[in-house]
């Protein structure tokens, strides 16, 4: 908002903070010295990109927009250049000519394609390099082959930009078949860009141009490439390497084809090793201590099981029994969390009692699976969630309704009207029971309010609230006491694909088509944090069990981990070959499992920032992942109509996370994940869209029956 900007600039000038004022002015493109009235107009971001407010340097916040991938954390000297098309990085990693731009102007971005060579020689350049790489030693060939795809794209775009359409067409036809199979979708988009005009509005194009494609190559392979290009005087390719690629050089053995294949495939190449160096507090917070009234009240507690409104705590873990502070946990007060109410404590007690009867799962003892099939869901089921105590299930539908069912014999009831409530004796023991209106009792409640398909739903931990997000760009908060909408949160301008409550309630996260994830608090109508950095839609969001971090999965085929405290991106995981659709943290907070359209489940060690496993077996998109309550089993549900159970204990034991692996990314995944597969369970014809382990480790699954 321009007035605000002007006010901030005036304040900075009054406080003699000239440097900050300059930076903010450059950032917002406010030129001209007159801060009073006619300040040059503020450049706005292009649609689909959320602008993040610029912050004076030194505060450590990220600047820039989603389109320009702001450097989040790390050494600003090395990273500052990445968002600007006109900067070059020379070998020492210093930056010459950094132009700070907010949302790169399309024409400025594309004009980098001006310094062109002879269009007729492009095929020769490329095939020359191809020949050189294919004839190099095996150990270098796998690494250098990573160059094919980014060079192919940039050379093609350069030809198109300079209006050599026929050369571009023949270049594309000759070489597009050589690219790795997982780039097929990107190449399809590329093949439709055949004229300079097409390039102007194309987002994928812009991303490819503005974010440097990252390749991780050993020093030996890099020297080999450099020598070859300099001997051949092949400036065209060398310019592209300098201008558009970021080569992350490591010392040590080159990686094998299999190691590289495991990690590549995202829209912007791999993550830089720097990106995963920040410290992450992945441990769990200490459970609050309070007396458990056992035994004497046990009997009466059992008969009136349904009476007190039980509230759900944070997921109970084996670790929470010990009173010691987890050495990897964040400080208890690192982010403000809501205090426990009496009803929460009551529910913690219920949870502990349930946990005592929990089944210990393992390869010898698999969970029973109870499948909830939505029949005749002609409204199109688009989202499902189940409360922590497994008492309610919610479905979001394509006809923009949200439907809540009770799964227990206890029906759903609304609170009585205000007039009736005033007649109730507030001191009576069963006041919570009396405020409910029996006339409203039913198994199903339908919530109307959205004006588009509902893509995400999430119950609050205390089961008083429900979130839903929709194609209409809003997130709505519903009361489960009155079954009405309390708030509509507007921040996304485009469809919102997912939303989730924090395990402690109060905070929630949403992610959408504008490539940004937002952190909200239920009592603020504007977001507290904006997480910008993904190059495509944010398709799924998940809170870490300690609520200090948020994981987001995106259609750019990467997973990012964000720090809630300062909004920084602390991990970037690449390796999936298609958009990410499911995320699950292990109960101890150390590991993350991710599932995507490529049918693979990848396992990540959060502390070391490494991929530690790959589970192959599904043949279609994985929409649901969930760890059992003690983390022994990982369940995955897919569009291939199966639920698969994996041995999580075995997958995470004997991990090689020594310093060398962390430094170079030489990961060694077991050849075969079949020995981790404990079981595959087919449905008749129902894709699995949600999984949930009850407090006693019964697995609940849900999906809508599809007749085709």
From TrEMBL:
Keywords of the record: Nucleus, Repeat, Transcription, Transcription regulation, WD repeat
WD repeat residue numbers: 374-415, 447-482, 489-520, 531-572, 573-606, 615-647
Domain TFIID subunit TAF5 NTD2: residue ranges: 117-245
Start-end of Basic and acidic residues biased regions: 315-326
Described purpose of this protein according to its UniProt entry: The TFIID basal transcription factor complex plays a major role in the initiation of RNA polymerase II (Pol II)-dependent transcription. TFIID recognizes and binds promoters with or without a TATA box via its subunit TBP, a TATA-box-binding protein, and promotes assembly of the pre-initiation complex (PIC). The TFIID complex consists of TBP and TBP-associated factors (TAFs), including TAF1, TAF2, TAF3, TAF4, TAF5, TAF6, TAF7, TAF8, TAF9, TAF10, TAF11, TAF12 and TAF13. The TFIID complex structure can be divided into 3 modules TFIID-A, TFIID-B, and TFIID-C.
Pfam families: TFIID_NTD2, WD40
Localisation: Nucleus
Protein name: Transcription initiation factor TFIID subunit 5
InterPro entries: LisH, TFIID_NTD2, TFIID_NTD2_sf, WD40/YVTN_repeat-like_dom_sf, WD40_PAC1, WD40_repeat_CS, WD40_repeat_dom_sf, WD40_rpt
Main localization of the protein described in the UniProt heading: nucleus
Domain of life: Eukaryota
Record-linked SUPFAM superfamilies: Taf5 N-terminal domain-like (SSF160897), WD40 repeat-like (SSF50978)
């Amino acid at each position: 908002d321009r007035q605000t900007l002007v006010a901030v600039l005036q304040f900075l000038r009054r406080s003699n903070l000239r440097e900050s004022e300059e930076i903010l002015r450059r950032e917002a493109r406010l030129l001209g010295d007159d801060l009073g009235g006619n300040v040059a107009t503020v450049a706005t971001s292009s649609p689909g990109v959320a602008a993040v407010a610029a912050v004076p340097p030194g505060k450590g916040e990220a600047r820039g927009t989603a389109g320009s991938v702001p450097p989040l954390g790390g050494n600003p000297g090395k990273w500052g250049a990445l968002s600007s098309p006109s900067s070059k990085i020379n070998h020492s990693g210093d930056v010459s000519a950094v132009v700070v731009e907010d949302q790169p102007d399309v024409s400025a971005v594309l004009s980098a394609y001006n310094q062109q060579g002879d269009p007729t020689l492009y095929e020769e350049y490329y095939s020359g390099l191809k020949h050189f790489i294919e004839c190099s030693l095996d150990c270098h060939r796998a690494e250098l082959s990573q160059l094919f795809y980014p060079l192919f794209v940039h050379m093609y775009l350069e030809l198109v930009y300079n209006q050599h359409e026929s050369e571009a067409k023949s270049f594309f036809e000759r070489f597009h078949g050589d690219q790795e199979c997982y780039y097929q979708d990107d190449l399809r988009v590329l093949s439709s860009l055949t004229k300079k005009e097409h390039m102007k509005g194309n987002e994928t194009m812009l991303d490819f141009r503005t974010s440097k494609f990252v390749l991780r190559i050993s020093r030996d392979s890099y020297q080999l490439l450099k020598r070859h290009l300099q001997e051949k005087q092949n400036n065209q390719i060398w310019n592209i390497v300098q201008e558009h690629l970021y080569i992350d050089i490591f010392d040590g053995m080159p990686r094998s084809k299999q190691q590289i294949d495991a990690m590549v495939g995202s829209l912007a190449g791999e993550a830089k090793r720097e990106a995963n160096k920040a410290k992450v507090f992945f441990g769990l917070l200490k459970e609050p201590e309070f007396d458990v009234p056992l035994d004497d009240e046990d009997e009466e507690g059992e008969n009136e099981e349904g009476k007190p409104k039980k509230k759900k705590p944070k997921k109970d873990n084996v670790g929470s029994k010990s009173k010691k502070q987890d050495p990897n946990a964040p400080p208890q007060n690192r982010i403000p969390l809501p205090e426990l109410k009496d009803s929460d404590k009551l529910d913690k007690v219920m949870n502990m009692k349930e946990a005592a009867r929990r089944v210990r799962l393992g390869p010898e003892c698999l969970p029973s699976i109870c499948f909830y099939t939505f029949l005749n869901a002609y409204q199109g089921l688009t989202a499902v969630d189940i409360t922590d105590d497994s008492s309610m299930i919610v479905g979001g539908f394509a006809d923009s309704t949200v439907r809540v069912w009770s799964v227990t014999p206890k029906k759903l009831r609304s609170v009585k009207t205000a007039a009736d409530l005033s007649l109730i004796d507030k001191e009576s023991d069963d006041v919570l029971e009396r405020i409910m209106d029996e006339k409203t009792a039913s198994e199903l409640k339908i919530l109307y309010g959205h004006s588009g398909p509902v893509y995400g739903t999430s119950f609050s931990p205390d089961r008083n609230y429900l979130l839903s997000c929709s194609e209409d760009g809003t997130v709505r908060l519903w009361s489960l006491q009155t079954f009405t909408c309390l708030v509509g949160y507007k921040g996304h301008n485009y469809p919102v694909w997912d939303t989730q409550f924090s395990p402690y309630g109060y905070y929630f996260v949403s992610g959408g088509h504008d490539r940004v994830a937002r952190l909200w608090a239920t009592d603020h109508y504007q977001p507290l944090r904006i997480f910008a950095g993904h190059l495509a839609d944010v398709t799924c969001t998940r809170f870490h069990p300690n609520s200090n971090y948020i994981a987001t999965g995106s259609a750019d085929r990467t997973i990012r981990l964000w720090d809630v405290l300062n909004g920084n991106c602390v991990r970037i995981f690449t390796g999936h070959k298609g958009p990410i659709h499911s995320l699950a943290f292990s109960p101890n907070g150390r590991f993350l499992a991710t599932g995507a359209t490529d049918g693979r489940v990848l396992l990540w060690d959060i502390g070391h920032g490494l991929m530690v496993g790959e589970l192959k077996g599904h043949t279609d998109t994985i929409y649901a992942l969930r760890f059992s309550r003690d983390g022994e089993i990982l369940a995955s549900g897919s569009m291939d109509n199966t639920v698969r159970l994996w041995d999580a204990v075995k997958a995470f034991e004997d991990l090689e996370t020594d310093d060398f692996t962390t430094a170079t990314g030489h990961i060694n995944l077991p050849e075969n994940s079949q020995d981790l597969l404990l079981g595959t369970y087919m449905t008749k014809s129902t894709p699995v869209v949600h999984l949930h382990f009850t407090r006693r480790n019964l697995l609940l699954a849900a999906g809508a029956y599809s007749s085709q």
